[in-house]
Write a structure and sequence with these properties.
165 residues; alpha+beta; disordered N terminus; 4-stranded antiparallel β-sheet; 9 strands
């Protein structure tokens, strides 16, 4: 086992590799007779990726980690995290463009998942990106073309059905 002060040192062992950002660890797969590999980003509490790992030539022990395998695992784990971040961003940020009169207005809803005070920010911008209005609303506010148009028509006042509880 390494000491805490050695956590910055690269490791290149048959079942454990570490660089400045990632650690790959080959583990016994408890579900069967095979092996698994986990990829954990420095500072993260859980692995970003856990997947099957190849048996060695003796069909008992795991294939040793090497530079090409480690780099492939880093690329795959980074992609998993990137997709997860994109999905979370899409869940927390919605936008719609509506026509209002002869203008086009972009209405956005940004959910703030604060444990103590969850809320959302409803904002509007004109076609040039200039702000038209912004209000704080409940995090479960439903943004739709109808709700956006009603908000614009109200002069950007806090919608009645969106008030914080």
């Amino acid at each position: 086992m390494t000491n805490d002060h050695d956590d910055d040192e690269p490791i290149q062992e048959p079942t454990r590799w570490r660089d400045e950002l990632w650690t790959a660890q080959v583990l016994k797969n408890e579900d069967d007779d095979g092996w698994a590999v986990s990829m954990t980003r420095r500072g993260d509490p859980e692995p970003a990726l856990i997947g099957p790992w190849t048996m060695g030539r003796d069909k008992k022990n795991p294939k040793p980690l090497d530079a090409p395998a480690f780099h492939t695992l880093v690329k795959t784990a980074s992609e998993v995290l990137r997709r997860h971040e994109q999905q979370l961003h899409a869940q927390l940020n919605k936008q719609i463009v509506v026509g209002y009169g002869s203008e086009s207005v972009r209405v956005a809803l940004r959910i703030v998942p604060d444990e103590d005070n969850p809320h959302a920010i409803l904002s509007a911008q004109d076609a040039q990106g200039d702000p038209l209005g912004e209000v704080r609303v409940a995090p479960d506010f439903k943004l739709s073309a109808a709700s956006a148009e009603a908000w614009i028509a109200s002069g950007y006042e806090t919608p009645r059905n969106a008030r914080m509880r």
